[in-house]
Amino acid sequence: MVQAVQLNWIHAYNFARLHPGSFSIAVLVAWPLFIALAAVAVVLSPLLFPGAMIAAYILKHTNAPAIEQPATEQPRQEQSRAGGSAVAAVDVDAAVAAAVAAAVATALAAADPYYEKYPQVRPKAQADLPPVPVYADWVDPVESSPAFAMIDKIMQERIMVIDGAMGTAVQEFRLSEEEFRGERYKNHAGDLKGNNDLLVITRPDVIETIHRNYLAAGADIIETNTFNSTMTSQADYSLDIKEEVYLMNKTAAELAKKVCVEFTKMDPSKPRFAAGAVGPTSKTLSVSPSVENPAFRGCTYDAIVESYYEQVEALVDGGVDMLLVETVFDTLNCKAALFAIDKFFTDKGKKIPVFVSGTIVDNSGRTLSGQTNEAFWNSVGHAKPMAIGLNCALGAKDMVPYIENLSKAADCYVFCYPNAGLPNAMGGYDQKGPAFAEDCSVFPKLNLINAIGGCCGTTDKHIKCLADMVKEFKPRVKHTVKDLMRLSGLEPFNYDPNPKDYRKTFINLGERCNVAGSTIFKKAVVEGNFEKALAIALKQVENGAHVIDVNMDDGLIDGESAMIKFVNLMVSEPDVCKVPFMIDSSKFAVVEAGLKCSQGKCIMNSISLKGGEEEFLKQATIVKRHGAAVVVMAFDEQGQAATEAEKIRICMRAYKLLVETVGFFPQDIIFDPNILTIGTGMVEHDNYGVDFINATREIKRLCPGCKISGGVSNLAFSFRGNEPVRRAFHSAFLYHACKAGMDMGIVNAAQVEEDEYEKLDKELLYHACKAGMDMGIVNAAQVEEDKYELLDKELLEYVEDVLLNRCSNSTERMLEFAATIDPKSTPTKLRKKGVEVGAPGAGGKPDAKAWRSQPVGKRLEHALVKGIDEFCIADTEECRTNGTFPSPLQIIEGPLMDGMNVVGDLFGAGKMFLPQVIKSARVMKKSVGHLIPFMEEERKRNGGTGEASNAGVFLIATVKGDVHDIGKNIVAVVLGCNNFKVIDIGVMCPCKKILDAVAENKADILGLSGLITPSLDEMVTVAKEMEKMGLKIPLLIGGATTSKMHTAVKLAPNYSGGVVHVLDASRAVPVAQVLMDKNKRQEFLDDIKDTYVEMSEEFYAGLEDRRYLTIEKSRESAAKVATDFTAPEHTPVTPKFCGVRALVDVPITDVLPYIDWNPFFQVWQLRGRYPNRGFPKLFNDETVGEEAKKLHEEALAMLKMITDKKRLTLNGIIGFYPANSVGDDIEVYTDETRTTRSHTFHTLRQQAEKDTDEPYMALSDFIAPKSSGVKDYLGMFVATSGIGLDELTAEFKAANDDYSYIMAEALADRLAEAFAELMHEQVRKEHWGYAPDEKFDNEDLLKVKYQGIRPAPGYPTQPDHTEKGTMWDLMNVHKEIGVELTDSFAMLPAASVSGMYFAGKCSQYFNVGKITTDQVKEYAVRKKQEFAVAEKWLSPILSYEP
Q1: Does this model's pTM top 0.70?
Q2: How far apart are CA 593 and CA 561, in angstroms?
Q3: Buried b (16+ CB within 10 A) or exposed e, 913-933
Q4: For residue 691, what pLDDT is reported?
């Protein structure tokens, strides 16, 4: 019940004792009032009042006792906030403080020049204000178990000890598959060994022994053996059966509890507790299992919640004393567990203590899903865990700074249980108990913990040492933390407002991901272009948004599915999800869907009393369970609050329900008292701005701790279309609302900064933050751009007349003035209509660049030649509107093509280089892109084509099965620069798609590109089909694996229309130009044809002359010089581990030193002449050196951007396996027994006769034969730097920036190769460790001076691409790191590298060369392939024509 606060001398005494500073201020304010009352007081005041101030400090420092209140008064209610959700009552002392503060504020406001200037928003006198209500403490309706009090008492007295690793202890028993199965599961279809949780059923004696050992060692808490006992995790063993999962959990709980009871009876002074272990499951809710679809999730939030609920129910049924949600690598999984636990407690009416333990993956201090540990705490604190901690991943020493940070951030108990140091090379743990305890002693020494235990590698011996060690130390004392709204994304966002200036701490809520706030965003969502939508979100963060508002409420959009997809996408982009999200919808189901996708602590927007109290309380409870802050709209059953009184009444009602009934933490309550439109011409709307500002101040006074937000964009809706006026309203409103206490708003952050209040024109404006507004919805970029202080002063005057309702005709005056303003100007650089940009008073800056003063045609030519795109749109628009060119088409055929002709001439003369040409193309594309809408409009009007003339239509494609396109893209750009209309239909293009496109676009020339050898066959297929269709257009062939010889032998005979091999982009232009010249074309093609016929004849003559050994003879030759693997120098080294290890998200900075820059410059066709060949000598070349240096600098700049913004992800995978050779095959085994063959790799042997005694090699020669009895190993790897490349290049393409997207592709290729080099070095020195002392610089690495090789399938040492399939199957590559194979065994992403590792000193690179029919037939049998299929894949190396 709300009560008035009755102040008396006892309250004053106690307040002075606790708050001498505030008391002194109050006395100073009251001083002149007392003087006015009596002359005697004037005389005595120099003694009385200083004396009172001194007495207050004496009372504080002497710890004077409190004077108790009379028994009739309401007792003080203690504040309590465990984890940020419990609510403190607003008690009498707090009310006294508020009253004193209000009195001080009122007195100060009376003399504040601001309020003298703006009396409309002056605070009311203290005597006119109602008292602050006293709100009752929230009482949790769920009963607490006795374990709460017991554990709380112990943790205050001593440091508790948690047990050690269950898995480590189980491994010591070396149990067999049969023992895991037991009688119950003896006929189970799959393997069960390793499913430790089953042992509580099949070998309970083992688990009981482990529990007893830990308790005997001194553990206070033992965990149930249920880390993976959820339906989700047991699905990996085909045991996702409810009855079985329930049995595992209940049995495990009963077993642990039984042993705890026994030990407690033996020593009642040391009670033991059974903790129900709740693991992270085998799924992650924050990460997509598909690299191609980052919005996809392998499971749903609801399914994980259900899985956890079932586990918790069984554990509690089994009698556990507490729950331990542990090893949290994805906070969203943890939030699902906490959601399930809270729901279970509510359903059952009783709760037990909950501990939560996160895990950080490395010294970055972040979880696997990317959160810092303070952000993690902010995300889970709402659940009020009894204790928070960290486990696993790191040893004790490395864990210290993160426990220290968690100890500072958390107001509950803190614990940790680290690993036994760091794993050794074999994945085991070497640290013994005493050393482990010594490392762990730093935690109690620094007073950081209340409990400690062990994780991976720890046993009962480690726990015994821990128990002995902690006896000497006192536990950490639980402390309070400042009451703040604590949000999180990947990083914490703790809102600590500045009451003196809320504008300085204002929270910018980015509006551009709100379909109502951005038509561009809405269009992207409606069209399903979520990549573009994501780019908008990223831009908002870059522009200063602290929180991203996401709203999908539109009739054209399925709100729930769009919300899920987009939030999942945002979560996948670290630069976006580092900030918290505001999940915004008028539909509660849509909001909840969004909350289920974010691991951070969000703001939920919104709920209201519109549907009545029952619905309000139900929705608020769910929001609290999700751990979100909540926006409450000022609506109730009667409708929207419009006046100041209505806003205050509804918000107070909602606040009382939230803090007293739901238990919402006051700091997490955000009121939106409705920013309504002003300047509508309707009198009843005139005071809406003032009402909001004044209501803001009063709501914050009457609802302690709450925040104020609002949709600022609504305010000036009447002036939509007039940007400077609308933005000025936003800036002025924020200025005044923040003075009132407004905390946040949905805004354009950059614009509000630009349009500072002080710059507004005084004839036009300056009021809500003076009252206390915390947040609001505006354009995030504009917040910074449109600072109040910078607003045009004339504009500001008009705006404030309307905003503050200062005169009855303010709206009419505003409209008149607005009509004189150039709508393209800004509120800080206001320009009247008719004033030229750059004219005096227009706000523009003169440009000093001389070329800008030339005629517009020359400016465009200069921009094209120099690749300057800064002014191209403006110059193109000037051409279109200045009357010189009757149509947009003439602009293209005139100044634009004039400029490109210059570029083409310079390139052809070797005076411009490829990077420059591509920059020129970027300018051309942007200019043409600007003209296209106008050309389309003109075409519709006159029925013409609206197309510019061109040098010819060139259709270009990468053939089926091949994903590589850098060279193709360069050719397309260069041809475009030479006035060819280029139709690029992309990569992986089947024959039919290519030929259909030829017909549809009436192509004059077809260009085919390919990088891998299967592409050669596909080109032959296209050529044959062109011949069947009777086509006569020339066919141009290019790409890394293509050659003039292959074109002559395989392609030219199959197509009579003319086939030409083109070496690179520089050759493509003159060839295409000749082919489009009717006078020269046929003569050119005839000459090419004659050349190719001669080459073909020479090729086949060479085949006849070339001699080959039979495959048997080749093997006999190799056997004579076979390596003796029993010799010490050739004895195989055992890898540090066998199996697969994924290297995910490797820092790009680790890879940079390994980049080989030479191929990069080759891509750009920059080649130096002797002696300046190669990097970095290339920079000294007099012809290309300067351009190469510039290109390198721009490449480094892009690399920095890619690195800083994490635009590309580097994933790798390595695998080592027991292996032996059998003939020309390499068998891979499942384990070291080598009894079961898992996979077989097939190698090819040289057959072309040699003039020397060299052996005829195959890769199998480098692996010890099975018959030798020597245990050998085979390694393999895949590395990619292409994850994220499609999105990056798409942005560049959308901006018509060919130069940047080709640069990005080229750099990604270099990073992939460099990553492979780094991985190979780590394999040699660490993972396999066969050359641990190797020391080579990068030049030596590039020269392959190291031991071992890494040949790739599809290349000379193993020319068969299909062998990649075996690697992918063996290492499960696609699932592990997201790299897949096409039908032609090309890798996706294209910026990927793969190969096999051979470690022996005898291994070397070689070229298989041509092979004969006998080997192909045998190879087909070994691979179980049809002979024709084998011939197809091996066609490039066949010594005969199939």
Answers
A1: no
A2: 8
A3: bbbbbbbbbbbbbbbbebbee
A4: 96
- The predicted pLDDT at position 839 comes to 47
Question: Two tokens at 534?
Answer: 């994501």
Report yes or no: 442 and 396 within 8 Å, Cβ to Cβ.
yes
Query: Rounded to whole angstroms, how far apart are CA atoms 15 and 13?
Result: 5
Which residues have CB under 8 Å from 610's CB, separation 6+?
633, 635, 636, 637, 639
**For 267-300, where are the alpha helices, taking DSSP H only?**
none
Query: What is the structure's pLDDT at 57?
Result: 56
The whole-angstrom separation of Cα 1391 and Cα 411 is 48
Per-residue pLDDT at 759 = 43
The predicted-structure confidence for 343-362, as pLDDT tens digits, reads as follows 999 999 999 999 999 998 77
At 31 the pLDDT is 54
Identify whether the C-beta of residue 327 lies closer than 8 Å to the C-beta of residue 359.
yes
Q: For the chain, what's the residue count? A: 1442
CA distance 607 to 1206: 36
Per-residue pLDDT at 353: 98
Residue 805 has what pLDDT? 92
Q: Which residues contact 1216 (CB under 8 A, 6 or more apart)?
A: 1135, 1137, 1138, 1139, 1273, 1274, 1275, 1327, 1328, 1397
Residues 6+ positions from 698 with CB-CB distance below 8 Å: 129, 644, 648
Q: Are strands 350-351 and 143-144 parallel, antiparallel or unpaired?
A: parallel
Coil, strand or helix at 688: helix
* Beta pairing class for 1380-1381 and 1387-1388: antiparallel
DSSP string, 1375-1424: HHH--EE-TT--EESSSEEEEEEB-STT--------B-HHHHHHHHHHHT
pLDDT at 30: 57
pLDDT reported for residue 47: 56
Q: Helices marked H in 329-394 — which ranges? A: 331-348, 373-380
Instruction: Tell me the backbone φ, ψ of residue 692, rounded to 5 degrees.
Output: -65, -45
Closest CA to 1244 of 1095, 1422, 1071: 1422
Q: Which residues are tagged catalytic?
A: 962, 964, 1015
Instruction: Please tell me the distance from the alpha carbon of residue 95 to that of residue 8, in angstroms, as a whole number.
Output: 12
The residue among 1183, 1207, 1192 whose CA lies nearest residue 1157 is 1192
Residues 6+ apart with CB under 8 A from 923: 863, 864, 867, 868, 869, 872
SS3 1056: coil
Question: How many CB atoms are closer than 10 A to CB 1149?
Answer: 9
CB 194 within 8 A of CB 275: no
Which of 837, 795, 836 lies closest to 816, judged by CA?
A: 795
Q: How far is CA 363 from CA 117, 418, 436, 578, in A?
A: 55, 14, 19, 18
What is the pLDDT at residue 22?
54
Rounded to 5 degrees, φ, ψ at 989 are -95, 115
CA distance 982 to 1004: 10
CA distance 827 to 1124: 84
Contact 456, 419 (CB under 8 A): yes
DSSP structural state of residue 87: -
| Residue 1027, burial from CB neighbour count under 10 angstroms (0-12, 13-18, 19+) | middle
Asked if 776 contacts 745 with a C-beta cutoff of 8 angstroms, the reply is: yes
DSSP category for residue 1128: G
Give the integer Cα–Cα distance in Å for 920 and 1298. 9
pLDDT at residue number 913: 64
Gap between the Cα atoms of 696 and 723, Å rounded: 27
**Residues of the chain with confidence (pLDDT) below 50:** 1-7, 9, 38, 40, 66, 68-99, 102, 110, 749-781, 783, 838-848
Q: CA dist 1271 to 104, 1072, 1137, Å?
A: 85, 58, 14
